What we know:
Layout: E1 13-22, H1 26-37, E2 42-45, H2 54-57, E3 62-64, H3 80-91, E4 95-96, E5 115-118, H4 120-133, E6 137-139, E7 143-150, E8 153-161, E9 164-175, H5 181-186, E10 190-191, E11 202-203, E12 206-209, E13 220-221, E14 224-227, E15 231-232, H6 239-250, H7 253-263, H8 265-270, E16 273-276, E17 288-289, H9 297-302, E18 309-313, E19 317-320, E20 323-325, E21 332-335, E22 347-349, H10 358-364, H11 367-387, H12 396-405
Parallel strand pairs: 1-2, 1-9, 2-6, 9-22
Antiparallel strand pairs: 3-5, 4-5, 7-8, 8-9, 10-17, 11-15, 12-14, 12-16, 13-14, 18-21, 19-20
The chain binds flavin-adenine dinucleotide.
Amino acid sequence: MAKYREPAREIDITGEYDVVVVGGGVAGSVAAIASARNKAKTLLIEQFGFLGGTATASLMNNINGFRNQVEPDGTQTVKGIAEEIILRLKEIGGLGKSPYKQKDYPTTKGNLSYSYCIDPEKFKYTVLDMAVESDVDVLFHSYFSMPILEKDKIKGIIVENKSGRTAIAAKIVIDATGDGDVAARAGAPFWEAKHEDKKLVDGLMYKISGIKDAPFANCRYGDSSVVWGPAMVWGHNDAWEISHSEIATRLEVYNHFKHVLDANPGLKASGAYVAETPVMLGIRQTRFIESEYKLTADDAITGRRFEDVVAISSAPIINYYGYRRFLTHEGYDIPYRSLVPRKIDNVVITGRCISSEQQPFESHRSMAPMMAIGQASGTAAALCAKGGVVPRKLDVKLLQKTLKDQGQELRI
Ligand SMILES: Cc1cc2nc3c(=O)[nH]c(=O)nc-3n(C[C@H](O)[C@H](O)[C@H](O)COP(=O)(O)OP(=O)(O)OC[C@H]3O[C@@H](n4cnc5c(N)ncnc54)[C@H](O)[C@@H]3O)c2cc1C
């Protein structure tokens, strides 16, 4: 490939923070809230003009994994900030009935069901409200470009936005991009599933309205519902490949809806129509950053407990050698070490790119455990920044005590 040498130049340092969170998906938003509530000066950077990531920008309106979907389901494994979001959504009529088969719990503190549908607009509102209320500085329409490195230590990041290219200094950076953009560009090792053994494909959700009384089992809110739309190829970190996937799935939407109407005569009779396609194709998996501990299939299947537990996942593995495998226990632990990348210091990983093999990822990718992992990452980053320690050296007992005091379920 031909090369162009970009000229070096001085740029402004527009902010200095204890913690900078890159990416405002469910994991990053909760991480930022947790960090700020733990008194760290926190900045949240997001490429879009709202929070939620896949949950809102990709219209993935079904939050799974607050407890096991089937028995044994006696433990609500995700509490803390994630639970707070659900209870706030309930207050403003932002929850819908999940299409999944599950036992219904009363949706009170400590009594959440396995899964909820959310109204994406109310979700955007609630999460942003909680971030602002917690004193998170939110910088929208800003794209992470490069980490600022001193040897193997991150000292901040460079972003591109309407103001141009600027630098932001940070004691700790949380990589919540879903794709591990920050850690990978800093030189942390990572792995990706190969094309041929790719497990979870990308999918374009879309919204239909005008449903009226038609029986349609998907996530409904008001007169609308989401449809699990055209599924294609798989997640990439290459702009052209993402673009090709967007084009292929978007051009298929009306054809897909025609099949939905054919299969659901009630929808046809009610005059249902495609009301909205999402801002972004839903990308399920890309990079997994190699960290101090990589979660294994055996950990998930046997329900392994770890001394450095910081979150729990009890959601099923959605494609275990071709079938939905429910866990026969009440969840496996996510260890703190899975959030600390190898080689690079001052970064904490959160969300779908934490260190994991394919099988456990297919459980803890569910948005409830993603938010619990977010709370763990944000709390860890705040403690590191305040204590002047690198994430690798953080006192895990202090982190666990702080998480427990702030409502996270840890079973210790
Ligand atoms: C089609 C599909 C169906 C799914 N079904 C379910 C389901 O039924 N139930 C369930 O619980 N989960 C489901 N999931 C999984 C779940 O939605 C994801 O695992 C979860 O939302 C990931 O959250 P995250 O915060 O880690 O990442 P993301 O949601 O990917 O968020 C990353 C955020 O970072 C931002 N960002 C990325 N790069 C940059 C950059 N360079 N600069 C600035 N900002 C950046 C993005 O805009 C985004 O807001 C599904 C996912 C897909 C795609």
